[in-house]
Structures are given as C-alpha cells and as structure tokens.
Amino acid sequence: MNKDATVGSSGFVEDAAIEYYNLGKKLVPQINGFLSTLENKFGKRLKSVLQKQGDEKCRYYDEKDKKNEGLYGFGFCESPKKKWNPGFFVGFHLDVEAKYWRAVETDNWLVEPIAKNKSPDFSLIVVFDAKYCPKYPNNAFYKNFKDDIRSIIKTTKFKWDIYDIAKNSGDQSECHPIHLRVPMQDMFTGTETIDKQADRFFEYIEDIVPKITALTSLQKMKEKFR
C-alpha cells in the first residue's frame, strides 16, 4: 500500500483515483490537494522553474472555477500584463470530463488523453491569447519554435508525446496548439509518498521547461506578438 494513501485529499494522488477518474470524483480533490502542497511546501522550487525570464506564475484553474476546462495546474505568462504570446500551462488535463462539462462551448480543449479513459495526461501546453490565434500559424518563428520543441523532447530524460492541432482535425481550440504530455499514471509510477510525487513533478518540469523558455525562437515570437 502507498504510505500516504490514507490521507484522503491532503495531497497524495492514489493510483485507483487516476485509473478510474472518469467514473468517480476522487481524483479532482486529490489533485487540488497535491497542487496546494506544491504551492505551500515547495513554493520556492516551483517559483524557480516557472518565473524565469520575466514570466509570471499564476494559479490557473481549480475545481472552484466553472470554466476550468478540465485543467488543474499552473499557468505562467509574460509580465507585467500577463500576455499569453504565448504562455504555458503545466499540470493535469482531465479532458474526458471536460467534454461533458463544456459540450456546448466553442473554446474547448478536446484533446483525448494518450491512455484514453484509463488515465488523464500530465501536460505542458502552449497557450495563446485569442487575439494572437489567427496570427501565429503563419509566423516563421512559430514554425521554428515547433521544430525546436521536437528537437528538445528527443533529448529529455522522460519521453513526451507531442500533440499538434495542425496535424489533427476536430474541434480543438487553435489557442492551445501544442500539448506535450505523458499519462499521469506513468508519471507517478513508483511514488509512495506525497514528497516523492512532488519530486517526480519537479523532475519532469525541471527537465523541460527551462529548455523551452530559453529558446530563441520563442523569444522572437514573443517580440513579434507584443
């Protein structure tokens, strides 16, 4: 048994809650407990990864936000005006539930998890403000940015799947064009305590976020869309 499995929603994420997340409601409070642990206990480490190069870390969505779109995690974007030109979301994507919650909405993420209904994704998502959505697809720096990301994930410690809406048809929002993701269950494999889950979270983001935010193609694109 996982050592922290009896602590309920205090931060530990249970295997069973992940595996059966689309059938029950245990996972959402556990994820929010985990995110609160990251902020309260590991805030300095979190800030060191997400607030570099003038970016501003902001809590993204949780269960209290009716428009959370199945996202639970953190957003970071350019300060001081919080421009998503682009910004990034890092966290958990429970889009199977989001499809039911927001079936009539047009700005939907609608990206099926890698493991389908067996596990949500842990994701790093590129996010553009709506006013930039019509502009970025034909931007040369954006094309270079995508190529650079593909090169980066070939060198990272962990294997990331890349979802590019340009190569998929459907109702996905153009404002969220790139998802780097791994099944949440795979990410937490072998973690038996809250602290170990937190360490695993940081291992993932520290391995990739600094490499992406340091890209020249990203900085050039941000300058174009300021």
- Main sheet: which strands, in order across? 1-2-3-4-6-5
Decide which structural class fits the backbone: alpha+beta
Number of helices: 8
- Uncertain segments: 61-66, 96-108
Please count the beta strands (DSSP E, at least 2 residues each).
Answer: 6
Q: Can you give the helix content as a percent range? A: 25-40%
Q: What is the CA–CA distance across the termini?
A: 51 Å
- Give the overall pLDDT as a whole number: 79
- From the spread of the alpha carbons, the general shape counts as globular
Radius of gyration in whole Å, from Cα? 17 Å
Q: Quickly count the domains.
A: 1
**Main sheet summary:** 6 strands, antiparallel
Sketch the topology as an H/E string, one letter per element: HHHEEEHEHEEHHH
> How much of the residues is beta strand, in percent?
15-25%
Entry summary:
The protein has helices spanning 15-19, 27-41, 43-50, 95-101, 140-152, 184-187, 194-213, 216-224; strands at residues 55-59, 71-78, 83-93, 121-127, 161-164, 178-183. By secondary structure, the chain is of the alpha+beta class.
